[in-house]
Design brief:
By secondary structure, the chain is mostly helical. The protein has one domain: Rhodopsin 7-helix transmembrane proteins (Rhopdopsin 7-helix transmembrane proteins, Up-down Bundle), CATH 1.20.1070. The protein has eleven helices and three strands. The protein has a three-stranded mixed sheet with strand order 2-1-3.
Length: 310
Amino acid sequence: MPLHNNVTEFILLGLTQDPLRQKIVFLIFSIFYVGTVVGNLLIMVTIKCCQTLGSPMYFFLFHLSFADSCFSTSTAPRLLVDAFSARKVTSYNECMTQVFMLHFFGSLEISVLILMAIDRYVAICKPLRYPSIMSRQVCLLSIVLAWVGSFIHSTAQIILTLRLPFCGPNLIDHYCCDLQPLLKLACMDTHTVNLLVGLNSGVICSSSFVFLMISYFVILHSLRNHNAEGRKKALSTCSSHITVVILFFGPCIFIYARPKTTFPMDKMVAVFYTIGTPFLNPIIYTLRNAEVKNAMRKLWHMKMTAEIKR
């Protein structure tokens, strides 16, 4: 804890103070959170149990589902508990832990989305060299680097946060602990810290989004040389990936890649990318991917057959 810090706990104002709306918040987001965990867990189990889903694309999808589940878990349980709490108190250490986890798994999701784009680029634009370029060793090394990079990013964020002195008040106008609302409470000039946050999170979000959109533009442009069947399959896969990228990066860029200012819709935008997008990802990938749907059906059929034999 930094020196001259008189704050040992924070009070989260949440999404609403109205008791009836709090119950509605609990009902809606409990469905979202359970759906997120169950949906992503189903994808992870399906990929692990089905040999037909052994390609690098599904290896990265497994890790994306894991990142989605953890990313949502970093905020949703706190939101649900606070929906029935008269005083939404979180300790200083809990708040700092949430900042770290939020940025760690958010950064991990960005890294995996980039790896998935690279995988699709190699598969579609360099098909003959795909097995050698996207070997198992390369995929494993890529994921390890993604975890290490995410840890470095979140460590940099938490170091900035831990150095902030809080003298009071301790009311956070948000449903979770994040850098922007915490910076508003710091009893110091936060101009430099805001600039560092923008250069860190803002640049990562913006540059990653630009890189991903350029990658998929190149991929889609190269499809003109493919046959109709190959083009249809590639378009289906890429359109799912592009949808996920836009849904995730749009709100992230809105929150982090802008000057120090706040808007009334900030909390709802944050809810969308921390809870909404992880909920939508499994739906997007399963509905738009015939291989995943077929693998899930086979897995379910095998389970039912095994139960009947008992």
